[in-house]
Amino acid sequence: MIIKEQLQINGREFIKTVSDAGLQIERDGVRYSEALDPAEFGRTYTETDMPIEEGKE
Questions:
Q1: Other C-beta atoms within 10 Å of 29: how many?
Q2: 3-state secondary structure 32-51
Q3: Is residue 31 part of a domain?
Q4: pTM for this one?
Q5: How far, in Å, CA of 20 to CA of 57, rounded?
Q6: Number of domain units in the chain
Q7: Domain of 37?
Q8: Which of 6, 29, 51, 56 has the greatest CB tally within 10 Å of its CB?
């Protein structure tokens, strides 16, 4: 399931998006382990079936 957390950094609102199952999230064909976006962008992500590869650089 996708988890969204609202954060405030230097007076600006951001949305952190992650998967609670340790899976990658995706937007516009690009996969991420987590995303941090300005709240006003309103970006949405979907959960993939690909696990996050820990330790990969």
A1: 5
A2: ECCEEEEHHHCCCCEEEEEE
A3: yes
A4: 0.87
A5: 21
A6: 1
A7: 2-51
A8: 51
